[in-house]
């Protein structure tokens, strides 16, 4: 089952002098329950694509489908509702509220979601059951990122979009963050797309999508992990 489908999308930034083709014709399908990693050099269009899938940005041309819904046909209000109801985001920087504990940071989201999981359960899932009452300043970077992941999954999103969640972490700490994402993908079947340069993702991901110059250069299937469906 296909969750996302992009049809020949482009994203052009017109900075006056020059036009930057951030995306230059991308056809990508994401399958229900898969964990896909987006690879490629800096500036190859990975973030732009992730932002478009998550409804944070719109393509210049082409269409994006979320199941039977055409994201490119939605107005801003509909796009906001799509993000709120279906998508969890994780970014390089954790954006936790410093004056709130881990539990309270996660609860900020569960307070407004329709069918949230308890903050405690979300924190347990990322291995932070023992850090519920700690504040961000009392936690390591990897722990803070796992709080951010708990916050993203607490509303039980169908989709998790992660833009360099390991970018600010050393390699070993990054692995613990990727393991948390992998566990969520396995346990809940959350369709997940991750931008990371951490090589540990390669064993976990169902597919590796490689970008170059705003295009998909190669899609590699991980034979040791069976694609869902
Ligand atoms: P990646 O995530 O692979 O590093 P990006 O999607 O961030 O690549 O960027 C793709 C290209 O689009 C780059 O050349 C980048 O400089 C350009 N770009 C991204 N966002 C903007 C923007 N808001 N305005 C102008 N150019 C942008
Ligand atoms: P990353 O490489 O971590 O994906 P970038 O440094 O490419 O992030 O982009 C960070 C922010 O700056 C994004 O919001 C992106 O839209 C914007 N940006 C990137 N490149 C440009 C650019 N050439 N001109 C203006 N804004 C840009």
UniProtKB/TrEMBL annotation:
GO terms for cellular component: membrane protein complex. Residues 4-229 form the ABC transporter domain. It comes from the Bacteria. SUPFAM superfamilies: P-loop containing nucleoside triphosphate hydrolases. Pfam families: ABC_tran. GO terms for molecular function: ATP binding; ATP hydrolysis activity; transmembrane transporter activity. Keywords: ATP-binding, Cell inner membrane, Cell membrane, Membrane, Nucleotide-binding, Translocase, Transport. Belongs to the ABC transporter superfamily. Macrolide exporter (TC 3.A.1.122) family. This is ABC transporter ATP-binding protein.
